[in-house]
Structures are given as C-alpha cells and as structure tokens.
Amino acid sequence: MLLLALTGSLSTGKSTVSNLLSQPPYCLPVIDADVLARAVVEPGTPGYKKIVNHFASTTPDLLLPTPVNERDENGSTAGHEKISHKPGPSDDRTGRPLNRAALGRRVFGSTPSRQRDRKILNSIVHPAVRWAMARSILYYYIRGHWAVVLDIPLLYDSYLDIFAPVVLMVAASPEVQMSRLRLRDPHLSEKEARDRVASQGGVDVKVARTEGRGKGRGYVIWNDGSREELEEKVGLVMREVEGGRKGVWKWVMLVLWPLAIVWAGWEVGRGWWCRSRWEVEAKEKMQ
User: Fold this and answer.
1) For residue 51, what is the enclosing H or E element?
2) Residue 154: is it exposed, middle or buried by C-beta count within 10 angstroms (0-12/13-18/19+)?
3) Least confident window among 121-125, 198-202, 217-221
4) Separation CA 100–CA 130 (nearest Å)
5) What is the DSSP string of 75-139?
6) Residue 6 forms beta bridges with which residues?
7) Which of 61, 109, 150, 212 could form a disulfide linkage to 114, CB 3.0–4.6 angstroms apart?
8) With a threshold of 0.70, does the pTM exceed it?
9) What does the pLDDT look like over 69-119, one tens digit per residue?
10) Helix orientation angle between 112-142 and 46-55, rounded to the nearest 10 degrees
C-alpha cells in the first residue's frame, strides 16, 4: 500500500486537495493529522492531562467554561457559565475541553518563549498522533486499499516524510496565503495571521524539500488560481502517481505480507536518505 503524504501551509489549499482525493475518481482514504491531533487531547486522554499539567498554571483561560443548569426559585432552569475557578491538573476528569484559541495565542509566534512552548506542545501531541496514524494505516492495509493519504501539515518538522514514498506539497504565494487566511478567520489581526503562517514554516523551504526528493517522489502543486485549475493539476499528478501501483500489485502486497514489510523497510530507507541528502546540501549552501 502506498503512503501518499499531503502537506502544505495555512491557506494554501491543502484541505481542498485532501477533499478531492477522498472523492471520485480517486476515492482514497484520508488520515488527517489535524483530526487525530484533536482526538488525542480530548478530555480524559493522556495528552490532555499533560497539556493541563504544563500550561494551566500560566494560562488561566486554557479550558473552556462549562455550561451548568441552575434552577431559580420558580423551579425553571437557566443556563449559566461556570468560569470562576482556575484550571489545574484535576480538570482532566471534568470534561472541560481545551480552549484552542487561548492555547494558540500561547504557542504561535516567533519569540523564544513561544517557540519553546510550541516545542513542548508538539512533544506531547506528535507521539500520540503517530500511534493513532499507525493504527489507521494498518486498518486500511487490511481492507486492501492501494493507497492512503496522510494529511500532515507539519510533515517535515515531525520527520514523518521518511515514511512516505510520495509527497504532495500544496503551495501558494505569501500574498494569497494571507488573503485567504484573513478571509477565513476575520477575527485574526494581521500580526496573529502572520504568526500562524510563520509557525508552519516558509512555503519556499517546503517546496525545496519536496522537489529535492527527486522525480516521482515529490510533487509541488501551486494553488494561486481557481479551483478548476487546482483540480486539473491534481489530476495530472495522480495519473503519474498511480502508474503501476494499482491493480494486481496491490493484491500481491496484501497477500505476500512479508514482501510488503521488506518493501516498506526499503522505502523508509530511501526516505531517510532523501532527507539526509537534502539537509547536507542545505548546510553546504549556507556556508
């Protein structure tokens, strides 16, 4: 089974491409890292408890207020919000969800303290997401799919690129990114929008890394135009990616699972080599 990694930055159109690949004529299963990242920090999970333990003491609004129903003297119910107590480690049992906006303000930005907090948050979330992703991959392999899409915004930052034989990078110019983000999230100030875009790394670096994987292993899809243009570009790329990977080959890999394990190990080795080669070349250019 082919692991097809899909990455991009904020407002480049990655989610649109993900939707296209999940629908006819492709109908590929999509494992969304953002969805998994939310699931692994739901109240009661180990990830949720670690986040509360680390950030609650310095982030008073880390948890959303819990609506409670209180009866008045006439016996009717009225909704009130319980927001009086400071969040702490005991909140992992109360079911109060994380306030993602507050957590985002805490970790998005370029200051040393925010970069440090973002690394801590990633160290909590990323390992849990990897395990959840591995379970999903095994499920789709057993179901006999020829490929699965791994929708991972921070593909290179999380070192997951080494596991993907093929990477699709959706790119857009910085001006288009900012325009789309401000249109989608009008509540964000210009500085907040720029901080969020910067937190996922520059598009130019991701483009270089994807192109550096070599022919047939890395595809950059520029999305500065219309949806129709994007659909056409995705179609061209997928026709090349499918090649001889569908049909008999997928059933050979499913039935002869020892061969699939060897092939997977070979692809991980190639992925590691591609990454190492790019990093060496990048260092040489900086000298």
Assistant:
1) helix 46-55
2) buried
3) 198-202
4) 21
5) S-EEEEEE--SPP-GGGGGTTPPB-HHHHHHHH-SSSHHHHHHHHHHHHHHHHHHHHHHHHHHHH
6) 151, 168
7) 109
8) yes
9) 544 444 444 444 444 445 554 454 457 899 998 998 889 888 898 889 999
10) 180
